[in-house]
Every structure is written in structure tokens, then in C-alpha cells.
Design brief:
Blueprint lengths: L1 H6 L2 H14 L2 E6 L2 E2 H4 L9 H7 L2 H12 L5 E3 L5 E8 L5 E10 L5 H13 L4 H9 L6 H30 L13 H15 L4 E4 L6 H10 L8 E5 L5 H9 L15 H5 L4 E5 L6 H13 L1 E2 L8 E2 L3 E6 L3 H6 L5 H7 L2 E4 L9 H11 L10 H9 L5 H15 L13 H6 L5 H10 L5 H19 L4 H8 L3 H10 L4
Parallel strand pairs: 6-11, 6-12, 7-8, 8-11
Antiparallel strand pairs: 1-2, 1-5, 3-4, 4-5, 9-10
Length: about 500
């Protein structure tokens, strides 16, 4: 999460623009798991044509990724022979949180390094002409530029270290921060009470709760605070794939098992070896896959698609569902034996609407992580937020707060007009009339304005309801047809 947050900071965006415009340098943030773009399976950003050409090949991508994962000195050379300058981001104890890397350039104007870069690109399968042209266009950064570039990197590293310290301080002030969850309501306190016991066990856990309540967060917390921390955590939504694809995804397949299976795949049970596999929406699994999952939980073995030899699974399974599995068992749609295997250690997450008092804590926590959004919420906005039922739960709340960076980015506080229409509506701000009435009640508008806005809205809605029948509408509103005509003209509704 840290790299994602840092990527959005103004200081990082500004430094990236300065380094690229002034010297043609690409700035990359590298964490313990490597660059953010590589973790997502994306392509690294780079201003260097040589780097971009290299990344188009599998070998080039893998070598670039390996280089960034191994950066540890102040100055290094990558697999193409290009220089990289590295600045660590350290906490108060001196631990390295991440590294800032500027790369994709030559530190000398000699012709020899350019020829070496061109040769390295050709060895990766890059067309000779493209390779030579990319090497010729490489930016040059001499020793004179080292001082200002280093100054930019140190300034950004200092900013990121301060940002990390501030976030850590905010987390420590929240009693539930250890589990990555926020809340002080009795319902959440019950969850926090049982989490340590679940984390200490290696048994299967079933997390119950509506969509968006944080079931995957609980699964990650159990993994990170259990004996399997440091090993893989793998998540899969069982409702997101058809049966045949889900089976191959979970259990893997051997080469030639089906059309398109050009190579063997270990599957998610293999990828999560020694760690935790989180199976979300397990209630949507087909009966055939339920049998296969039962065998893994019961015997600890599974069979890859097309395989003849079973494989042993060293994986802790955390399953989750929003469905009532007991009812599905009664209906014959879920295996009873699998239900008992999953229901060893159940934990139920409450919906947000039942977590009295937690809304403000969550809003404050999410705002602290949202760049460019105001850090204050007006009383009118709070009234809307607290009356809204949040059918999408915490996920919906987080998405709403992310919107505020756009809708309220230039404001000093979040106001009702910055909220989503359905949230505004529950607080009486869903229409021009309701907004005017609420503004008048707060002393921010006149009674005449509120009355006029409400009258206009009543007439506009009445026209829709009566399909424009003025005689009928005038009768419903208790006014003459002449008066209605005057109002229609005044409000531009003719």
C-alpha cells in the first residue's frame, strides 16, 4: 500500500517531472517487493527509449525487474550498462523503507558505452536499427549534474520518510490498527477479541459478512499475524470465473491438459505453498468444485487438471462468503460435509450500518490516506453520511472518500454538494429545493429562496407526474390554472 500512496504525493510527481524535463531521468520507487509497476505486471515508466525497447522482451523485463529488486548501493549499472543513482528512504531507526532510483542514462559522453548498450539491446532481440537509434538518443548526465539530482532525491526521500512516520503515528492512535481494521463499536470489538486466537491457529477459517465489509482484510490480518507470515498470501474470488477456468486456476494443470495449455501451471494452491489461500465467495462454488475443495481440506492433497499424480497442499485456507451456507445446505446447494470443514472457526463481520460510532473513525482514517481531499467534513455532509445506509459497506465508503479528491479538491471542507447524489438525497440535499431548505436552516440562505426552490421543484415534478396536464396539476396543488401558468413562466417551465 505504501508505494501506491507515495506515487500519488505531490512531491513525487513534482520531482518526477523535474528530473525528466531537466535531465531526461526516470524516477522509480522501489519497495521490498520490487517496483510497483512490476508487482502489478505492468511496464516500468521510463523516459529512455533504450529502456522501453528492452522491456518489450520477456528477458529484458525479467532482467530489469531483477536489477531493481537488487538495488542497494548509491550508484549501480543495469543489465544494459546504463547508470542508476539510488537514494534510500529510511525511518528514524535507520531501516530502509524503500528506495528512489533514477535510471536510464549514461554518465559519460564516450562512444563506447553507447555501442555496448546497442549490443545489449540486439542480444535481447531488438531490431538493430531501433537498438542503435535508442542508444544514440540516451540522455547524458555528467558529474556536474550529480549534485542537483542528488539534492532532489534527498528532498523526496526526506518527504517520504516524514509521510511514513506521520501515517505510523496515526495508526498507533487507533486501537485496532494492529489488525489493519478501524472501529470501536461493540460489534467490531467482538471481532478484535477473537482475531488473536484465530491467528494463532492453523485451522480453516470461514469469514462471513456482506460484500464490502472487509473479509479480505481479515484474511490478510490472520496471515500476517500467524505462523505463516512471510510466506505467500494468495486471494481468489470463486464467483469471478466459470468452473473449468476456476478449477485450473486453483489446482493447476499439466501441459496439454486442454486446448491452449502450452505449459504446466502450478495453480494457486501451489503458488500459496507454505502460506495462506483466501477463497472469497466460496458459496458460489459449483458442486463439482466443492468436492475437490473438500478433498484438499480433508486429505491435504489435490489433483491438477489432466494430472495423474496428486500433489500435497501445505496451505492454510481462509474462506469467505456473504451467503447463508447453512440455508444452502438445507436447500441441497452446498455440501454438508464441506460446510462442516469450513465452519471450524467462523467469524462474522458486521455491516457498516450496524457499527454505531465507527463511521467517523473510518472517514478520518480514509481521509488521512487520501491525497488532495479536504481533511474536514462539514456538519451538513456528516448529516448525509450518517443517515445513508451504506449498502456497499466499508468498500463503498472508501470509494466515496476517494471521489472527494476530485469533487472537493479545491474546497477547505467536504460539503453536501461534494457527495454522491444518493448520499446527498438522504440528508435532504438530493434536489435544488431540499438543498435550499437545508441551507436556510443553517443560516446560509433566505426563507424566500427556500420557498421558491421548493415551489419550482413541486411544479416540475407535478408536470412529470401528470404528463403536462396543467388543469389536473393546478387542481392537485390547490391553485388556479392562471396562477399555475404564471409560476410556469416565472420558473422557465413552460
Amino acid at each position: 500500500m505504501t508505494l501506491e500512496v507515495w506515487e500519488g504525493l505531490r512531491s513525487v510527481r513534482l520531482a518526477r517531472a523535474i528530473l525528466e524535463d531537466a535531465w531526461g531521468l526516470a524516477l522509480v520507487l522501489v519497495g521490498p517487493e520490487g517496483p510497483l509497476a512490476h508487482r502489478r505486471g505492468g511496464v516500468m515508466r521510463s523516459s529512455s527509449e533504450a529502456c522501453r525497447a528492452s522491456l518489450f522482451s520477456r528477458d529484458g523485463f525479467e532482467r530489469c525487474d531483477a536489477f531493481y529488486r537488487d538495488v542497494h548501493r548509491d550508484v549501480m549499472r543495469c543489465h544494459l550498462g546504463l547508470e542508476a543513482w539510488i537514494e534510500p528512504v529510511r525511518d528514524d531507526a535507520g531501516r530502509v523503507l524503500a528506495r528512489l532510483v533514477v535510471s536510464g542514462f549514461l554518465g559519460t559522453s564516450d562512444a563506447a558505452p553507447r555501442a555496448e548498450v546497442a549490443a545489449a539491446l540486439k542480444a535481447l532481440g531488438v531490431d538493430e536499427g531501433v537498438a542503435s537509434d535508442a542508444a544514440r538518443r540516451l540522455p547524458l548526465v555528467d558529474s556536474v549534474a550529480r549534485k542537483p539530482v542528488r539534492a532532489v532525491l534527498r528532498a523526496v526521500a526526506s518527504e517520504l520518510a516524514a509521510h511514513a512516520k506521520e501515517r505510523a503515528s496515526r495508526r498507533e492512535q487507533r486501537p485496532s490498527a494492529r489488525w489493519g481494521l478501524v472501529g470501536r463499536s461493540p460489534q467490531m470489538e467482538s471481532v478484535f477479541e477473537v482475531l488473536p486466537r484465530l491467528a494463532a491457529s492453523d485451522a480453516t477459517v470461514l469469514v462471513l459478512g456482506e460484500s464490502g465489509t472487509g473479509k479480505e482484510l481479515v484474511a490478510r490480518a490472520l496471515h500476517e499475524h500467524g505462523a505463516r507470515r512471510g510466506r505467500p498470501f494468495v486471494a481468489q474470488n470463486c464467483a469471478a470465473m466459470p468452473d473449468d477456468l476456476l478449477e485450473s486456476t486453483l489446482f493447476g494443470h499439466i501441459r496439454g491438459a486442454f486446448s491452449g495449455a502450452s505449459r504446466s501451471n502450478e495453480g494457486l494452491f501451489g503458488a500459496a505453498d507454505g502460506g495462506t489461500l483466501f477463497l472469497d465467495e466460496v458459496g458460489d462454488m459449483s458442486p463439482a468444485l466443492q468436492v475437490k475443495l473438500l478433498r484438499v481440506l480433508q486429505d491435504g492433497v489435490y489433483m491438477p487438471v489432466g494430472g495423474t499424480s496428486p500433489r500435497r497442499a501445505n496451505v492454510r485456507v481462509v474462506a469467505a462468503t456473504y451467503k447463508d451456507l447453512a440455508m444452502l445446505v438445507e436447500q441441497g446447494r452446498f455440501r454438508q460435509d464441506l460446510f462442516y470443514r469450513l465452519h471450524v472457526l467462523p467469524i462474522k463481520l458486521p455491516p457498516l450500518r450496524e457499527r454505531a460510532g465507527d463511521l467517523r473513525l473510518l472517514v478520518e482514517a480514509f481521509l488521512a490516506e487520501t491525497e488532495d481531499a479536504p481533511q474536514r467534513v462539514s456538519d451538513g455532509a456528516w448529516a448525509c453520511l450518517e443517515q445513508y445506509p451504506w449498502p456497499g459497506n466499508v468498500r463503498e465508503l472508501r470509494a466515496e472518500i476517494s471521489r472527494w479528491a476530485i469533487t472537493a479538491g479545491d474546497a477547505d471542507e467536504v460539503r453536501p454538494e461534494h457527495l454522491a447524489p444518493e448520499i446527498r438525497a438522504v440528508g435532504g440535499y438530493g434536489s435544488a429545493g431540499g438543498h435550499a431548505v437545508a441551507a436556510a436552516a443553517r443560516g446560509e440562505g433566505t426563507l424566500a429562496d427556500a420557498v421558491e426552490a421548493l415551489e419550482r421543484e413541486l411544479i416540475a415534478q407535478g408536470l412529470d407526474r401528470t404528463d403536462g396536464n396543467r388543469t389536473r396539476l393546478a387542481k392537485e396543488l390547490g391553485i388556479s390554472r392562471t396562477t399555475l401558468g404564471e409560476r410556469l413562466k416565472r420558473y422557465g417551465l413552460e
